[in-house]
């Protein structure tokens, strides 16, 4: 949520000052912008921050890379954030292990926003694994 976005902001070298909040039962992140309506959703705000930092390469360079990055961002929101049981976590880690078996990063050979947000989303799980 908001903590993750603040970490991303720092990683991207953006100045602090964005105001983050949450809305609804699921605590969906919200960014209040100065000029216009607020932005809602982790992926939407994260992509906005990447563009604000002029680091568009983190969203992928080719059409295929962009699609793969988007795919993993969706996976993060739908599976990782939604998975709460030990069985869900086990399946997610097994899936990721198989997928990453022959890859350096989620989008192949380039570091992207997918890698950053999957790390943030799984960090709490990994520190609790024996």
Automatic annotation (TrEMBL):
<dbReference type="InterPro" id="IPR010987">
    <property type="entry name" value="Glutathione-S-Trfase_C-like"/>
</dbReference>
<dbReference type="GO" id="GO:0005634">
    <property type="term" value="C:nucleus"/>
</dbReference>
<protein>
    <submittedName>
        <fullName>MCA3 factor</fullName>
    </submittedName>
</protein>
<dbReference type="GO" id="GO:0043517">
    <property type="term" value="P:positive regulation of DNA damage response, signal transduction by p53 class mediator"/>
</dbReference>
<feature type="domain" description="GST C-terminal">
    <location>
        <begin position="48"/>
        <end position="130"/>
    </location>
</feature>
<dbReference type="GO" id="GO:0017101">
    <property type="term" value="C:aminoacyl-tRNA synthetase multienzyme complex"/>
</dbReference>
<dbReference type="InterPro" id="IPR036282">
    <property type="entry name" value="Glutathione-S-Trfase_C_sf"/>
</dbReference>
<dbReference type="InterPro" id="IPR042450">
    <property type="entry name" value="EEF1E1"/>
</dbReference>
<dbReference type="GO" id="GO:0005737">
    <property type="term" value="C:cytoplasm"/>
</dbReference>
């Amino acid at each position: 949520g908001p903590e993750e976005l603040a970490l991303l902001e720092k990683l991207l070298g953006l100045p602090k000052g964005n105001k983050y909040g949450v809305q609804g039962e699921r605590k969906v992140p919200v960014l209040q912008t100065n000029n216009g309506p607020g932005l809602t959703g982790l992926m939407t705000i994260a992509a906005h921050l990447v563009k604000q930092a002029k680091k568009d390469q983190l969203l992928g360079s080719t059409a295929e890379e962009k699609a793969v990055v988007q795919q993993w961002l969706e996976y993060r929101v739908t599976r990782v954030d939604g998975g709460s049981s030990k069985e869900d976590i086990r399946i997610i880690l097994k899936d990721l292990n198989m997928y990453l078996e022959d890859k350096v990063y989620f989008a192949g050979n380039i570091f992207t926003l997918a890698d950053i947000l999957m790390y943030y989303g799984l960090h709490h799980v990994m520190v609790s694994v024996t």
